[in-house]
Design a protein that fits this description.
Chains A, B: It comes from Ambrosia artemisiifolia. Chains A, B: Keywords: Coiled coil, Transferase. Chains A, B: InterPro entries: Glutathione-S-Trfase_C-like, Glutathione-S-Trfase_C_sf, Glutathione_S-Trfase, Glutathione_S-Trfase_N, GST_C, GST_C_Tau, Omega/Tau-like, Thioredoxin-like_sf. The structure is a homodimer. The first copy, chain A, is an alpha+beta fold. Chain A is built from ten helices and four strands, in the order E-H-E-H-E-E-H-H-H-H-H-H-H-H. Chain A folds into two domains: about 70 residues, Glutaredoxin (3-Layer(aba) Sandwich); about 130 residues, Glutathione S-transferase Yfyf (Class Pi), Chain A, domain 2. Chain A has a four-stranded mixed beta sheet, covered by helices on one side. In chain A, a hairpin with a 2-residue loop joins strand 3 and strand 4. In chain A, helix 1 runs parallel beside helix 3, helix 4 runs antiparallel to helix 5 and helix 7 packs across helix 10. The longest helix of chain A is centred in the middle third of the chain and has 27 residues. Chain A is globular and about 55 Å long. The N and C termini of chain A lie far apart (about 55 Å). The interface between A and B is medium-sized, with 24 and 24 residues.
C-alpha cells in the first residue's frame, strides 16, 4: 500500500513551509489541506487538540503536530538526503540551534516587526540574531548544515525569507548586510536552494500579509 | 579512554533533575559541578552563551545545553534502557508531549504558583494539565512511557514532585486527586521509580525554596 501523506496548513505560514521543505528534500508526494484559522476544521481540532494549529502532518492516518517534531519525523521515516546529522553530538547541536531560533530569534523578530522596528525591540532581535551570525562565522559553511541544509536552516526559514517581506511591507530595516554579513549571505544561499525555492510562497503574498496585518492605516 | 562526563547544575532545579534522571537510567557516572546563578562561572557562559543557564552536560569536552536536548543526546550515546521509543511515530508523539509540558504546562504552573493560586491562573494551569490527564487515561499505563519511564515522564518531573512542595510551602492547592486522578497516580508511581527516587532533591529543600521565593512576609 502506498503511503498516504496529508499536510494541513496555510499558504503563508513559515511553520508550514518548514514541513513543505522537509517533504521536498525527501521528494515525498502529499496532499495539501488548506485550513481556515478563523473557522478551524473539525479535523484540525481532532488532530491537534492542544495547540489547534497548523502544520499537522497526517501519515497513513497518524497525525503529528509541531513543525520541528514533524521535520524530525519525516527525517526518521523517509531515507535519502538526511535533515539531521547521524553523529550524536552534531545532532544535539542541531537540535539546540533550532530551539534557539524558536525560543529566542523568532519571538524577538515578531516583536520587532509588530512594533514597526521600535529601537529597543530591534536591539533585542539583533542580540539574538548575533548568535546565529557567530555560528555561521565559526562554521564557515554555506548553510548551517554545511554544504547542504539541515534542521537549523529549515527552522530559520522565516529569517531568510519572511523578514525581507516584512521590511518591504512596513518600510523598516531589521537585518542589514553591514551588521549581519554571514546571515545575509546564508539567506541568499538558502532561498536559492532548489528544495526551498520550489515551495516558498510568492513574496508579494507575504508583503501583502504584513501590510494588512501590521501596516499603518 | 573512559568517558569524561560533567554536569553543570544546581541542586534544586527541575531541569537539571531531568538530566540526572536520564544519567541514572543509563547508569552513567559523572561529576556534578555546582553553579551559582548569581555569579555565573566563566565555564557556564562559555559553554552556553545563548541561555547562560544550567543544565549543561560536558561529554569529553563537548558541551550540550537545554535539558530535553541533553536527555535525547544521552539516549543517543549510551545504549541500555531506552528513553525514547524506536518507532518513528511513537518517538514523534513523545517529542510532542514533552514539548507540551515545556510550552504549555510548566509556564501555566509557574504562573499559578507565582500568583499564590490566583483563580484564573489555576484555571489556566488546569486546562493544560487536563491534556496530560487525558493522555494518561487513553494510554491506561503506569507511565507516559508505558511500563517504564520515557522522555515525557522525565519532562514532567516538576509536575510530579515540585508542585507538591510548592503547595505545601504556600498552603495552596493546585492538583487534586479529585480533578486529576490519573496524574496523581502517575506522580506517585514516577517519584517512587528507583532511577527517579535516587536523584530527587530532599522535599524540604524545595519547600524552603518556594517559601523564600514566593512566601508572604
Amino acid at each position: 500500500m502506498a503511503d498516504e501523506v496529508k499536510l494541513h496548513g496555510l499558504a503563508g505560514s513559515p511553520f508550514v513551509c518548514r514541513v513543505k521543505i522537509a517533504l521536498k528534500v525527501k521528494d515525498i508526494k502529499y496532499d495539501f489541506v488548506v485550513e481556515d484559522l478563523i473557522n478551524k476544521s473539525a479535523d484540525l481540532v481532532k488532530y491537534n487538540p492542544v495547540y489547534k494549529k497548523v502544520p499537522v502532518l497526517v501519515h497513513n492516518g497518524n497525525p503529528i503536530s509541531e513543525s520541528l517534531v514533524i521535520v524530525e519525523y519525516i527525517d526518521d521515516v523517509w531515507k535519502g538526503v538526511s535533515i539531521l546529522p547521524h553523529d550524536a553530538y552534531e545532532k544535539a547541536r542541531v537540535r539546540f540551534w533550532a530551539k534557539v531560533v524558536d525560543d529566542k530569534c523568532l519571538p524577538a523578530l515578531f516583536k520587532a516587526i509588530g512594533s514597526h522596528a521600535q529601537e529597543q525591540a530591534v536591539a533585542e532581535a539583533h542580540e539574538q540574531l548575533q548568535f546565529l551570525e557567530n555560528e555561521l562565522k565559526v562554521k564557515g559553511s554555506k548553510f548551517f548544515g554545511g554544504d547542504s541544509i539541515n534542521l537549523v536552516d529549515i527552522s530559520a526559514t522565516f529569517i531568510a525569507y519572511w523578514v525581507g517581506a516584512a521590511e518591504e511591507a512596513l518600510r523598516i530595516t531589521l537585518v542589514t548586510k553591514d551588521k549581519f554579513p554571514k546571515l545575509k549571505e546564508w539567506s541568499d544561499n538558502y532561498i536559492n536552494c532548489q528544495a526551498v525555492k520550489d515551495v516558498l510562497p510568492p513574496r508579494e503574498v507575504l508583503v501583502g500579509f504584513f501590510k494588512s496585518r501590521f501596516g499603518k492605516a
